[in-house]
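Kindly review both lines to help learners:
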Amino acid sequence: MTRDEFVDRIRHGTQIGSADCRGWDLSGLDLSGALLDDVDFRGANFANANLEGSALSHCNLSGCEFSAGHLKEVQFFRCCVNAARFDTATLESASFVECQARQASFKDTRLDFARFFRCELTESLLQSQQFERASFLESQLDRADFTGATLNFVTFHRLDLKTAVFAQTQCLSVMFLECDLDGQCFAGLSLRLCQFTDSQLDDADFSGATLTQGNFKGTSLRRANFSHTDACQALFPEADLSGANCSGGRFDQSIWVEAVLERVDFSHARLPLAVFHRARCTGASLRDAQLQDADLSYADLRGADLRGACFLRTRLHRALQQGTHFSSRGGIIESDPELFKAQVWSGSH
């Protein structure tokens, strides 16, 4: 098949299969709506080409050039795009399903609503400023590089992201669901409204990061670093932060219900209006912490250090306090009569 015959068949809506198109120059051509199966395109040039709405299955696209191409709503199924270049291309609403994309480059690519499902993206470059509502599901992202990317409403589900690079990334409402992020570095990043539900984040570094209204429900954060973090209104229910460093952080109106906070360092942290119901805070340090209007009802504070802490209407209703250290108990509400009445009523009904 010649190049002209190839283009003519696409224009007539004819499916092309089992063809050898290695090294072809298809740059700038209108190939929209192409139906391609088992075509070998290795090293082909699609720069500035229009492939909108095309469907490619079982094709070999290794080393292909797609720079500045128009690939809106293109479907790649079980294709090999290793080392392919999609730089500055439009891949809005494109889908990659069970594809090999090792060392593929997506620098400055428009990836809004793009979907990657069960793909291998090892060492891929995903440095895009147009990354809205994209999703990465059950894929391999070892050493994938998101440096400088802007991620808005992006979903990462069931991924190993321990070696992914997020340097200088800005995230808004990103969802990390059931991901392995142990040891990951998010230091100094903006991660507003992000969710890390049921993810692994042991030894992760969030120092100096902005985590406003973040959700860490059920997350493992053992030995994580939250020093000088801005995590106002963040949610940590049922999270395990054993041995974490939260010193100097801002946690105004944060929720720690039933969290494991053993040996956590909250020294000099801001915790006004924070809720610690039934939290396990044994051995935790809250020295010089701001605890105005905080609620530690039913918390386990045995062996905790609250010396120098600032109390004002701070509730310790039925909190365990054996061996707890205080400089002063002024400002503490030892018991809450109204809460006690509510509990008695609830128990009788």
